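Notebook B, p. 112. Complex prediction, attempt 2.
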Amino acid sequence: MPDPESNSESPLSSGAAAPAANSNSRNTTFARIMRLCQKELRESLRDRRTIITLVLMPLMVYPLLSVIFQRFLFTTADSITATAGYVIGVEDEESAELLQTYLGMGHAVFLADAQKAARESGDREPVETLITEAQKLQLYTVEDPVDRLVRGEVDIVVLLKTNGEPVPPMLVPPAQFSFTHQPNSAASQQVLGIMERYLGAVNDTFLQQRLIAAGESTKSPLTMVRYAAEEQHSTNFSVASLIPLILILMTITGAVYPAIDLTAGERERGTLEALIAAPVPRFHLLLAKYVAVVTVALLTAAANLTAMTVTLYSSGIGKTLFGDHVISFQSILVLFALLVLFASFFSAVLLSVTSFARSFKEAQAYLIPLMLMSLGPGLVCLMGLEFKGILTVAPLVNIVMLSRDIFSGNVAAGPAAIAVISTTLYAAVGIAVAAKIFGADAVLYGGESGLTGWFGRPEKSRPAASLASTLLLLATLFPLFILLSGGLAQLSEKSIGVRLGLSGAVTIMLFGLLPLAFAVFSRIHVASAFNLRPAAFLSFLAAALLGFSLWPLAHELFLLHRALLGSQSFSPEQVDAIQELVMSWREISPLLIILTLAVIPATFEELFFRGFLFSSLLQNLTARQTIIVSAVLFGVFHVVVMSSLAVERFFPSTFMGLILGWVCYRTKSVWPGILLHTCHNGFLVTIGYYKDWLEANRVGIQEQEHLPANWLAFAALGTMTGILVFKYIVHQDEVIETS
Amino acid sequence: MLNVNEITKTFEADNRSVVAVDRLSFHVPKGEVYGLLGPNGAGKTTTLRIILGLLQPDSGHADIGGIRTDRAPMKVREQLGMVSANDGIYPWLTVREILMFFADLYGLEPSKAAENVESLADRFDMRTFLDRRASTLSTGQRQRAILSRGLIHDPPVMLLDEPTRGLDVLGSQIVFQYIGLLRDSGKSVVVSTHRLDEAERLCDRFGLLNKGQLGYEGSLAELQERSGCRTLVEIFTDMAGEQTGA
């Protein structure tokens, strides 16, 4: 009961003073978000429902799955042994005949031993087993046996090499058997073991005979070499493909409950309004909840990964599923990193959905379709499709397929990088959307504005796009960019004019029309968002100077990056294709080349990176952060070339992005940057166009060579002059403003 | 201390606009308990949510000591405490953890927060359950924890939204004592309720809301004089009749 007489000091002592006793250290944004996270995590981890998902599920699911797998595998193996037998593919009749002979010899050795043992023990079962086993070895002469192995039509391929050596007495000529097997197929592993045993027995017998004869060489006449079919890039279905899918589904399971509880659950309990009414930005509250959900999801992922690994090793099912390719510690770490990325993405999606819900039940109803949709990528993964093209940017699908490839030890860097970048972008969009919905009026009080309120056209115009809108645009742009770049690379049969025209159209659409449509729809003031303010005449001169001076420095950065990396990203075929492309430029007018490869990309990339993106970032970040972030994104987009990754382009492009960002920030206009970018691109394109003429006149510029020192000195001088002129212009402007 | 100036708020429902609050203005000085009275749907809760900055008014604004909710919402929220009948509590946290969490949200130093928790524990007789998880508390204990939460940062303005709804006699008694305590400590208090009989006992001045509009405003004596009626129920009925032209 309230006691008015007790302690008159706090907290009811004064009705006038501001209550918050602020301290800088306590109220830094980061520290506060961390404390908010602690509270959310404490709340989640004390909930027994979270603990059940986190600990009990992995403890139960994997042993259960291992039992099912084992039963399935044994049933499969038994059915193969009982009915169809093992299908051994060989190239020709001669190989089949020879292999049959040796297998018969090896089998006879074991059979003799078994019969001897049976006579002594009276147990004939081993003899019967051996007889049955030998009967199941079925040799077939087939064309392209390795191809058939990959398609799952044969269990193993045996290729014979005799080296043409003379057949020694004892009917065992020296020969090499190459076994190509399916590491993920139980039947393939079993038949491999049987054949190695039989042929090994032939070797042993032969050696024994030789030793008996004394003085003869003890060298084994038969050697056996194994080849795993995965090196042939196997893509057919395997039970092992299910493992990453199970891990991902379990991680989702871990994230679902805290996501609902910390959003819709909070509203249902009646704690949300008091939380939202506190003097803390909603985004910080949401971020704390997001970190808590990701943490619980990752704890679940770690628990599942550990339980799965222990089960695979302890039950021996790992060897059966993956054959010789047993999962390494490194693979597990990489997989966990991927689960971190996946959890970051999916937690954001979950929070977007659950923030929308007004009750626990409503959230569950929304999540059921999402969970069902999450099974789709798993099915795509099981279809055995190759991880490339649209699949690398398809949300969820890309992570599941990347996990599959990590498990099979068959990861390509390009698609992996695209999957990681696109998923990171999707996660950022998810958080932005969740932040917009979380605690919004319509959710709190059941208003009817709902989706139109959040995603409809805003009523007031604004000078630049919000960070959420920009992230959404980036997340739309990046996959489109990957897809269209890949599409353009497939048009090699079209004329160079058509290809360049299409390339220009794609650039205009992606970096010009799409952001423009976004800006118009969101009532963003086009002139200010795209930094279309006029700039001083002198700044154009400085921009041109930088445009012509920067390329040698960028070129040196390119070489430096390549030297540090130790290799180049393009295959020799791709290098040939690029050189062929540059050669084909000469079929058309240099003006068209300059227009499509210099003017259009420079104009529209600047409008997006130093316009729309830059102005949006500048609203939320410092100038330095804005320049760096926009430059890194500029670098990332330039790494994708002809549907593959040219990592060595990252540094020079980011370097150019930094300069262009600085110029834009200093001049507050996109126009000088457009001129700078055009001069830079135009100069490089011109060099490419007149390469033969330049080389004929001994002005050779080889990509792999450093530029002459005097060129670099001129470039440095030009760059410094350009920068000084810009500084002078800015100084003049400041003087005018002050006066 | 608290000023509400000409606020208007319209909601869209069933494809039509409903005016929830219509050019509402009132003022609550220090140490006064202001009763915002009216039937369900009169606009009381909407008004409190606008003061808290949880809803944006279509026009008008509220301010606390000159700080406007539309211009400095975070600063205003630091000056406000809110307790609502719908308030819940975190079941997996202890009462102390809940109070410390809200103290942190309002930017209190840990030492100050701990001091306030101890003080509130004494005032609201919470010593026995301060370190128990909220899921194990009785209804009365939960209520005291929620009332304490609203005061953890010692705000100069308190907003109470239907604070006795759903409570029994004893529970209501705790709320009455709580309001008395707030008045005694010099806070500006706004109590929104449709229980006119209770309001008569609790509040210094009254604002009678009907369909978003402030009909009558003043002390009980002023309202009695103006309407010629004796009780708040009669005064309200009279006002509603006037507004509908009956």
